[in-house]
Write a structure and sequence with these properties.
With 623 residues, this protein is of the alpha+beta class. It has helices at residues 2-25, 39-51, 95-104, 110-121, 185-189, 215-225, 230-233, 239-259, 316-321, 323-332, 389-400, 403-409, 462-466, 514-517, 562-568, 571-591, 600-614, and strands spanning 28-29, 32-35, 57-61, 127-131, 133-141, 147-157, 163-173, 176-179, 194-196, 262-264, 283-284, 287-290, 300-304, 310-314, 337-346, 353-361, 419-420, 440-442, 484-488, 536-539, 551-552. The strands form five sheets. Strands 11, 12, 13, 14, 15, 16 and 17 form a seven-stranded antiparallel β-sheet that branches. A five-stranded mixed β-sheet has the order 1-7-6-5-10. The longest helix has 24 residues, at 2-25.
């Protein structure tokens, strides 16, 4: 009897694991995998496939729409966030971004930018794009030092608006990996070593709910013991039973994978550190309107680009003082929504439609997706009351249809006659994906292990961007010069973490909010003389994973502290990092040496290639 039971147990547990190992070993193999569809990913794919033209490169696009560009196209963000350096009046970012900006100007049609990117990428015969796939599992070598494979599965949007899994898993192996995503999913799921949101901020500046240390670690322990009520997390009621079964099967699966030279990875935050659980910056959903009237207004600036496309920005006084807008924000702010001073751009020359960036969505955890509920991929350390991305997307679209919303939007100068653009079913036309300003941050490779992560635990710190120098040998970023792979520049731009951030103690609305949230960086108000005054040298270390020697991270999860990310998060800077990651991955494959093991000589070569072959800008004195 025991023999029969043992055989049945082996059949149920060992055989599936053996089958998985067999499938991994027989999986499709490429040289480089780039995960993401945004501009960092497109830049990385373009440079990797063009430089290593004899190597196979795969771009995994983790959203449903079949367009390159991510937030800049599918997301509707068609107003470039750029800042010209006052010292010479030029943009510090070169490479892919400079190419795209030259063709589009400051405002553009998202569809046209997507076509421009496609024109470049589709010329590359060694580049394959895998549309609408996302990661379900990450596999490393038995030592957990190198990534080896990704499990991928197709996506579809359900009638309720949530994104679901469909079809069977596909396995993809590679020699080099790039997480250029706009949510840091590969870095998070692989346990690469990340912190969440503003976890590195001084505790004294955080609300009490974000302050306690060890919260995330204790919740993981509670989850493993089955103490958390599944219905509170939206999991099936038999979740604990399912988890127990899966845990037993996982032991067998892990052992068999290790014997075959593989290891299945699990999400984790900052190994060795007991970090607080912290919020992420407010998200946004871009939406379309018609009926905008460009003109001369006191509280709104309209500009027409050389390409003939209109853009607009402003509305500060309207946001602060207009009774309709303040009433809207006081009503819907506690529900997690607010209108901010806006920027907007025409959907291409002569188009009657405009994309608008004005709706803030608070309390979104960019790591949490409906499709991951009940799995080990779900971030059980997320703060109470925070929304999954699907929940936020659906709720924001519902808010747009409320009469209060369009009434408030019409208070902004030039938007008095604005109406929502709707599709054939009467639903608002919005970005297909959220604008996630912040999710996770990689820790610095080779950094010390302390009790709590701070600003100095990342390759680029807030002090480095805030006090960046005018050239080599000066400024807080001077040490980055030797391993520089590009320049980053913008303002320290925080859109708030909670609705309460938008109001002072007297109840009056305030903007910008950074000087209130970070009084230790008080000279950060937008303006030509605001700090940062100079671009920051971006070091090669900013795109290294702290754990995996063959993973580069130029996307949202780059090794940049939370406050430094407030400057470097804008898309031109991400494209700079993407260029560097693409060249580095290609060079690593050709040389057979992982990027994390490189010395100054290899980094010098990457910089030379970026400058001479791809037009990167790495020196301030030559701007």
């Amino acid at each position: 009897m025991l023999l029969v039971l043992g055989f049945i147990l082996s059949a149920k547990l060992v055989w599936p694991a053996t089958r998985l190992l067999y499938e991994i070993k027989r999986a499709e193999h490429v040289d480089i995998v780039i995960y993401g569809g945004g501009l960092a990913a497109c830049a990385a794919a373009w440079k990797a496939a063009s430089f290593a033209s004899d190597k196979r490169v795969a771009l995994v696009v983790p959203y449903i729409a079949r367009q390159y560009g991510g937030l800049a196209t599918v997301g509707g963000q068609n107003f470039w966030d750029v800042r010209y350096w006052s010292r010479d009046g030029r943009l510090p970012q070169g490479g892919s971004f400079a190419h795209w900006f030259y063709h589009t100007g400051p405002f553009y049609s998202p569809a046209e930018l997507a076509k421009l990117i496609a024109k470049e990428l589709e010329k590359l015969p060694n580049l394959v794009t895998l549309w609408g796939l996302d990661i379900t599992a990450v596999y490393a070598d038995a030592k957990g030092e190198r990534l080896r494979a990704l499990a991928l599965r197709s996506l579809e949007r359900g009638p309720e608006g949530y994104v679901h899994w469909k079809g069977k898993e596909k396995l993809l192996k590679a020699k080099q990996f790039i997480d250029a995503s706009e949510d840091g999913r590969l870095s998070f799921l692989s346990g690469s070593g990340v912190t969440v949101g503003r976890a590195d901020w001084p505790a004294v500046l955080l609300p009490e709910v974000e302050d306690p240390l060890g919260t995330s670690a204790s919740r993981w322990k509670e989850e493993a013991a089955g103490y958390l009520l599944p219905e509170k997390l939206g999991f099936p009621r038999n979740w604990i039973e399912l988890f127990t079964k899966d845990a037993v099967g996982r032991v067998f699966r892990e052992r068999i994978l290790q014997l075959g030279g593989y290891q299945e990875l699990s999400p984790s935050i900052s190994p060795g550190k007991t970090n607080r659980v912290a919020r992420q910056q407010a998200a946004t959903l871009m939406f379309k309107v018609k009926g905008v009237r460009p003109g001369l207004y006191k509280d709104m600036v309209f500009i027409r680009s050389p390409q003939g496309v209109w853009g607009a920005y402003g509305g500060l006084r309207t946001y602060r003082e207009n009774p309709v807008v303040t009433h809207f924000n006081k009503t819907y702010g506690p529900q997690g929504f607010a209108l901010k001073p806006l920027n907007a751009a025409q959907d291409g020359r002569d188009s009657p439609e405009w994309w608008v960036n004005s709706l803030l969505i608070f309390n979104v955890d960019g790591r949490a997706h409906f499709r991951d509920r009940g799995s080990s991929r779900y971030p059980l350390d997320k703060l109470p009351g925070t929304l999954e991305t699907d929940e936020a997307w659906v709720a924001a679209r519902q808010l747009l249809l409320k009469p209060d919303f369009i009434h408030a939007l019409r208070q902004f100068p030039g938007f008095e006659e604005a109406d929502l653009v709707k599709d054939s079913t009467g639903q608002p036309v919005t970005g297909d994906i959220l604008y996630l300003r912040e999710t996770v941050h990689q820790l610095r490779r080779g950094g010390g292990v302390g009790k709590e992560a701070g600003d100095g635990d990342y390759a680029v710190t807030a002090l480095e961007v805030y006090l960046a120098g005018r050239g080599p040998g000066e400024g807080a970023d001077a040490d980055n010069y030797v391993n520089r792979i590009g320049l980053g520049f913008y303002w320290l731009d925080i859109n708030g973490y909670r609705f309460e951030d938008l109001q002072g103690e007297d109840g009056a609305f305030r903007w910008p909010v950074i000087s209130y949230l970070r009084p230790d960086f008080g000279q950060s108000l937008p303006g030509s003389t605001a700090r940062p005054e100079n671009p920051v040298y971006l070091p090669f270390e900013a795109i290294l994973s702290p754990r995996f020697s063959n993973l580069l991270v130029p996307g949202v999860a780059a090794s940049i502290s939370s406050l430094a990310w407030a400057e470097l998060r804008v898309l031109p800077n991400q494209a700079v990092l993407g260029d560097a990651a693409g060249v580095a991955a290609a060079y690593a494959v050709e040389q057979g040496i992982d990027p994390a093991t490189w010395g100054p000589g290899e980094i010098d070569e990457i910089r030379r290639i970026l400058v001479e072959k791809y037009g990167a800008r790495v020196d301030k004195e030559f701007l």
